Amino acid sequence: MDGGPDLIEMAAEAKSSISEWWMMMSQELYEKQSDALVMEKMLAGSGYSDKAIRYFMEKPYIGAIPDADQVSEMTGTCGTP
Q: Among 1, 28, 54, 69, which lies 20 to 30 A Cα-Cα from 11?
């Protein structure tokens, strides 16, 4: 060869990097799912209904509104910093 990088080696390194990344992401997803299950069990054990738990976990109607023409922020329980 002409001394350039070996494409087979580069491909093997890339595959190894992707495999490591995928394992890390899979572990992170597993931990998030596990945390969610723990939270659901804790809330159910505290007497919350399935509907209330689902509402808390999914957080519907929370977030940014695209093209909002007014923004409000609460800085404290009485609106003061």
A: 28
